[in-house]
Amino acid sequence: MTKITLDPDRYFSPHSATRDAARELYRAAAHTPIVSPHGHVDPRLFAEPGASFGSPAELFIIPDHYVTRMLYSQGIPLETLLEGDHRQIWNIFCENFHLFRGTPSGIWLTEELCSVFGVEEKPNASNADRLFDALSEKLASTEYSPRRLYERFNIEVLCTTDAATDTLAQHQAIRQSGWDGRILPTFRPDAVVNLDTPDWKENIDRLSEVSDVNVVDYVSFIRALEQRRTYFKSMGAAATDHAALTPFTAELTSEAANAIFQRALKEDANPDDAVRFTGHMLMEMARMSVEDGLVMQLHPGALRNYNEVIFRKFGADKGADIPLQTEYTRNLLPLLNKYGNDTRLTLILFTLDETTYARELAPLAGHYPALKLGPPWWFFDSLNGMARYFDRVMETAGVYNTAGFNDDTRAFCSIPARHDLWRRASANWLAGLVVRHIIDMDEASELMAEMAIGLAKRAYRL
């Protein structure tokens, strides 16, 4: 049996002076509450007191594209991982647990199993059935219900991501249940804003239905979106979220926007229409955020569903999204010229192109009052990705022009591990500044509290 060992100094520098300082900084922030301002946990988990995560396969494997993409890369069919018997799926995962060595997923999975579920041995072929039975027993108990784990994880607030057409029925159920956990929605309008979205016309029909606005042209479309934002805000939403292939922004006249919208309604829009309309709608969303105070998040740069075979068989979000080289300075200029100097707007910007950190993003965030940089995202929310982010962003932008950490995960039980990794990486980076006499320990302690929780609470107005 190979035991799981979580060293108390994990992820810290091997150099004693830096490690000692990192240990002290981390210790002060280790148990502060978790603020999770952006993620993809399903609110249904919290809508009913008796809700369960299901089987170990449903918790750890099936919904986590970080896990399934690694297993698929080794030739394991997605049919087996997504549609097979749950014990069989778990056994395959355990037999291949070694694939995650040295990866962020390996860090999160190991810490989840050990810290959350008390598993003391690394998964493998010989212990797979025993672990499946032990975990199944725990997941069936009240102690391991989503609500109880939310409380155990010391989560102060958890924000979900919800389509503009969502009725937020699950959020209503959480409110009406009397439970005091803070689960807040986030407004995501991509499916009605991006004209190349599959079933876009059906999504517009749904928008008409839930907003009680008959969406027949661009003006009514804007009115429906404003209505939905108002409703989301009434349900506690603090932010919006926008995905786009690029951060291109450009303002259209109302007449030009309506002409594109009418072509889309007739299913006659072309790719250039989609690009121009999305760029215009990012401008409109910034304008709405100035007016209603919702924080605006922009996640560009992923070529979604790159593997057409997988997309046709299994649909979206199956681990086949690939980063693109992305340009920000020229693309964001129209939006920042119009709204970047307005302190009523907070635009939190993310990237999948690390080459832009020092060249574009840090200088932009170090100048515009409205702009904050989000943490390393997706492929880069790793120990090394965080270190690169600190070194390339902080010197020019400064710590206070960043938005702290968000876990951006569907895997609820990985949230403590993800935040712990960020806090340890932050402590280690700050310790490096201390031992090189760039800042003193008092300054580092203040920055540690900010990076653990303060920056995120302020950036997202939570």
Structure explained in plain terms:
With 462 residues, this protein is α/β, with parallel strands linked by helices. It folds into two domains: 16-51 and 152-459, TIM Barrel, CATH 3.20.20; 52-144, uronate isomerase, domain 2, chain A. It has 21 helices and eleven strands. The protein has helices at residues 16-29, 44-47, 56-60, 65-73, 78-83, 86-95, 104-116, 128-139, 146-152, 169-177, 190-193, 200-211, 218-234, 254-265, 271-292, 308-314, 333-339, 356-365, 383-397, 415-435, 441-459; strands spanning 34-36, 155-159, 162-163, 183-184, 187-188, 239-244, 295-300, 302-303, 322-323, 347-349, 371-373. The strands form four sheets. It has a four-stranded parallel β-sheet, covered by helices on one side. A three-stranded parallel β-sheet has the order 1-2-4. Helix 18 (356-365) crosses helix 19 (383-397). The longest helix has 22 residues, at 271-292. It is globular. The two termini are 45 Å apart. 44% of the residues are buried.
